[in-house]
C-alpha cells in the first residue's frame, strides 16, 4: 500500500486506497452523509461550478502560499477540520494526523470527540485549535475549555449545527458502533453498544449534546476562555451578522460535509453572501467539499480567508496513517502552488482579487 500511496497524484487516488483499506462499515461512516446524501453531492457540484478568471502577465516566478490565521503563520490557507474518532481509521489516530499537520505547517483542530486525550494531540507540535460541542454537562464544557487553553490550543471552534445528529442512513443500516479501543476519551463515555437498525453515535449525541444552544450561550463561553472564538456551521448571512455583533472572532461557513441537514445549501454557494454581510469584520473560513488546491483558490476568490479540510485527511489516515495524511497535505500544497501561479497570483492575497463566473 505504501507504493500505491507514493503513486497517488490526487486526493481522489488516496480516497480509492482508503476505501480498499477500511472495513465497509467504517468506510460508510467516513464517506456517508445524512438522508439521501443530496448535500454531500451538492457540495462537490457547487465547487465545480465556480469558474475562476485568471490574470495574465503577472510575475509568478515566486509564489507565497502562506497566510496569517489568528496570530499564527500557516504555510497554506488551510486548517485540518475537527473530525471525531480518528483511531477508528488508523492506529496513528489524532496524534499522527496532528504530527502531519505540524510538519506541513498548518493548524490542526482537535475534536471534542477525539479518540485521544486533547493534551496528547496538542503535544504533537504545531498549531492546534480545539473544537467544542455544546454539552448538557456545563462543568465538563468548562473543564474542556480550561484543558484546551492549558494545552496551548490557539482558538476554540464552536460547532453550532448539531443540536441533534442528522439521520445518517448508512450508520443506521449498519447498526454502527465503536470498538472498545476507540471511545470519546475527553468525555469519559462509551459508544460501543450495537443495536440493529440504530447508530450508537446518534444515541450518544442525543444523550450528551444540549440542543438548547443559543446566542446567549456565547457570552458564557467567552467568560470561560480567553482564546479566539470561531463559530462553525453558519450558512445564513443573518446569522453571520448576528455572530459578528455578538463579538465572535471568526466564522466557518459549513454544512458539516453534508452530514446534518440533507438538502442544505452547499457551503461554497453560501460563502459570497456571508462574506459580503460580514464586510471584513472577521475572518470567514469555509469547509464541506474541499478536495484540491484548485478548490482552495476557488474559495479564496469567493472571499474566504482559508478552508478547513475534512474527509481527504481521513482518506490519507486510512490509506497510510500519519504518512497518508502527510501525502494528502503535500498534494494540496503542490496543487495550490500550481493553481495560484496559473491564476496569476504570486500570493494568497492576490487570489482574493480574482473574478469568478
From TrEMBL:
Protein origin, superkingdom: Bacteria
Residues involved in FMN binding: 82-84, 111, 131, 159, 232, 254, 287-291, 310-311
Binding site residues for glyoxylate: 29, 133, 168, 256, 259
SUPFAM superfamilies given in the database record: FMN-linked oxidoreductases
Transmembrane segments: none
Pfam families named in the record: FMN_dh
UniProt protein name: 4-hydroxymandelate oxidase
Amino acid at each position: 500500500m505504501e507504493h500505491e500511496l507514493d503513486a497517488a497524484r490526487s486526493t481522489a487516488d488516496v480516497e480509492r486506497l482508503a476505501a480498499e483499506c477500511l472495513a465497509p462499515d467504517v468506510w460508510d461512516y467516513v464517506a456517508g452523509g445524512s438522508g439521501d446524501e443530496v448535500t454531500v453531492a451538492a457540495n462537490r457540484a457547487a465547487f465545480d461550478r465556480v469558474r475562476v478568471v485568471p490574470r495574465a502577465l503577472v510575475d509568478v516566478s515566486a509564489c507565497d502560499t502562506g497566510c496569517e490565521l489568528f496570530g499564527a503563520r500557516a504555510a497554506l490557507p488551510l486548517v485540518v477540520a475537527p473530525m471525531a474518532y480518528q483511531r477508528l481509521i488508523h492506529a496513528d489516530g489524532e496524534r499522527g494526523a496532528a504530527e502531519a499537520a505540524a510538519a506541513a505547517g498548518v493548524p490542526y483542530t482537535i475534536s471534542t470527540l477525539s479518540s485521544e486525550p486533547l493534551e496528547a494531540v496538542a503535544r504533537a507540535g504545531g498549531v492546534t485549535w480545539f473544537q467544542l460541542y455544546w454539552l448538557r454537562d456545563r462543568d465538563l464544557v468548562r473543564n474542556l475549555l480550561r484543558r484546551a487553553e492549558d494545552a496551548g490550543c490557539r482558538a476554540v471552534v464552536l460547532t453550532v449545527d448539531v443540536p441533534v445528529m442528522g439521520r445518517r442512513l448508512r450508520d443506521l443500516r449498519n447498526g454502527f458502533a465503536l470498538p472498545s479501543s476507540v471511545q470519546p476519551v475527553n468525555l469519559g463515555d462509551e459508544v460501543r453498544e450495537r443495536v440493529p437498525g440504530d447508530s450508537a453515535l446518534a444515541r450518544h449525541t442525543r444523550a450528551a449534546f444540549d440542543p438548547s444552544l443559543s446566542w446567549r450561550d456565547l457570552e458564557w463561553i467567552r467568560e470561560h476562555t480567553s482564546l479566539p472564538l470561531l463559530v462553525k456551521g453558519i450558512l445564513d448571512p443573518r446569522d453571520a451578522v448576528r455572530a459578528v455583533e455578538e463579538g465572535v472572532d471568526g466564522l466557518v461557513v459549513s454544512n458539516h460535509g453534508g452530514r446534518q441537514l440533507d438538502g442544505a445549501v452547499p457551503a461554497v454557494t453560501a460563502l459570497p453572501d456571508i462574506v459580503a454581510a460580514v464586510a471584513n469584520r472577521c475572518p470567514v473560513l469555509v469547509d464541506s467539499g474541499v478536495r484540491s488546491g484548485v478548490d482552495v483558490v476557488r474559495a479564496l476568490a469567493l472571499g474566504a480567508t482559508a478552508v478547513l479540510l475534512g474527509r481527504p485527511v481521513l482518506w490519507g489516515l486510512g490509506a497510510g496513517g500519519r504518512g497518508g495524511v502527510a501525502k494528502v497535505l503535500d498534494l494540496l500544497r503542490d496543487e495550490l502552488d500550481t493553481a495560484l501561479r496559473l491564476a496569476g497570483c504570486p500570493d494568497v492575497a492576490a487570489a482574493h482579487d480574482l473574478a469568478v463566473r
